[in-house]
Each structure stands twice: as structure tokens, then as C-alpha cells.
Amino acid sequence: MMVLDAKGDPLTERLREPTPDPATPVAMLKVLERMKNAMPEFDRVSIGFPGVIKKGRTLTAHNLHPDWEGFPLEKTIQNRWKKPTRLCNDAAVQGFGAIKGTGVELVLTFGTGLGSSIFTDGRLCAGLELAHHPWRDGKTYEDLLGNAALKKRGKKRWNKLVAKAVKETRDLFNWDSLYLGGGNATKVDMELPPDVSIVPNEDGLRGGVSLWHNDVTPPHQHSGTEPRSRAVGK
């Protein structure tokens, strides 16, 4: 969690808390409440969530808990914190903080699982869920590139698979730029082409400001006046 100004520049340091186990909505909301209380005053809330998002609800959460399926997270936070709130996939939020806004840009985030988002000329193409798509030998992208695969196969073999993913997603999406993020992006130690770059985790927070641009997120909530600052959770 971090508070940003209206341009997306940090006003606080990034605050981190361990994910509770089990990571149910009830447990996670307690953690978020504690983190929020450690933040200065803010006007709006942007949330990046590791799963498919539809109309403010978390439809999937493969690496958290089944109770998240269909959970109205956006409305819940808005009602509890009395602040306008917008919710988006976490890889999409990270992408908003990383992209240049020209051409086709793909974002892959390596963490517990695999996150993905794709943009054309700065506009999010919502709904991409590459993680659970069959990829090689009957296994998905997440099966082969997630944290469990990194631990099982080792860094060298994992990097070879990352290199294959770079090549094959290039052929699939014809992207102009590829951004690699997430906690395990620091484990990528191959020589990258000039159109591939590693981006910091902080982009996943700074990108939250973009959720309030009317050409990015459907304004299904009244946005009000331009805020001074926003709390961004991921």
C-alpha cells in the first residue's frame, strides 16, 4: 500500500504485510484495515487484485482462497472506507505504471503465479488471463513459470522457460514492448532484447492512478472532483 499524489508520484514509502493464511476475504480485509490506518489521509482508492475482475467483483483468486469467487471487493472497500474505489487486475495496474502508451505492450508478472495484461496505444484490453492457458506438455504458463516451478526446476531451467515465453508471446501477440515484473522478475538473468525490460514492483502501485482516467476504466462509479491523493493497494 502507498499513497500517491494526483500525478502518481509517491507521498509515502511502500507498506508491505504478509498475506494471511488462509487468505480469505475476512482475513485480508483485516490486514488492509490495519495498513490503511498506518497511511495519511487520502481521497480515493485503487486496488490491484491477483485474479479476474468483473464489475467490481473478484471472479477468480487461484492463489488466495475460494471465498474470493464473486466477492464484491470494490463495493466493500468503498463502503467501509467511505472513499470512491476502483478495482482492477494487479498485472493490469502494474502495466499502467510501466507502459509507454504506444503500440502493443504486453506485461508479464512473475510471483506466486503468473500475471498478464496487454495494452494497445495505452488502452487496456481487459480479460487477458494467460496464466491458466495450456502452454507446453499439457501444463499452463503458470505451471511452468510460477514460483513453485522456479523452486522445483531451479533458476537456470526456469530462465530457459522465460526465454521461450518471450519468444512465443512475441509470435502470438506481435507486441512492440514486453515488460517483466513481479517479485520473481529479479530472478531473470538472461540477456534481454531491447524491446523487453524488467520493471519494479512499485509500478504496480503507481499505476493505480490510471484507474481514474475515464478512457481507461468504465466510470461505473461517480468519480467526483480531481483528488489530491490516492491510497493504492496490491
Topology, please?
Elements: E1 2-5, H1 25-37, E2 44-49, E3 53-54, E4 57-58, H2 73-81, E5 85-89, H3 90-98, E6 104-110, E7 114-120, E8 123-124, E9 134-136, E10 139-140, H4 141-145, H5 147-153, H6 155-173, E11 177-181, E12 196-198, H7 203-206, E13 229-233
Parallel strand pairs: 2-5, 2-13, 6-11, 11-12
Antiparallel strand pairs: 1-13, 3-4, 6-7, 7-8, 9-10
Helix pairs in contact: 5-6
Q: Could you characterize what this model shows?
A:
By secondary structure, the protein is an alpha/beta fold. The chain has two domains: 2-92 and 203-233, ATPase, nucleotide binding domain (Nucleotidyltransferase, domain 5, 2-Layer Sandwich), CATH 3.30.420.40; 100-198, Nucleotidyltransferase, domain 5 (2-Layer Sandwich), CATH 3.30.420. It is built from seven helices and 13 strands. The chain has helices spanning 25-37, 73-81, 90-98, 141-145, 147-153, 155-173, 203-206, and strands spanning 2-5, 44-49, 53-54, 57-58, 85-89, 104-110, 114-120, 123-124, 134-136, 139-140, 177-181, 196-198, 229-233. The strands form four sheets. Strands 8-7-6-11-12 form a five-stranded mixed β-sheet, with helices on both faces. A hairpin with a 2-residue loop joins β7 and β8 (123-124). α5 packs across α6. The N and C termini lie close together (6 Å).
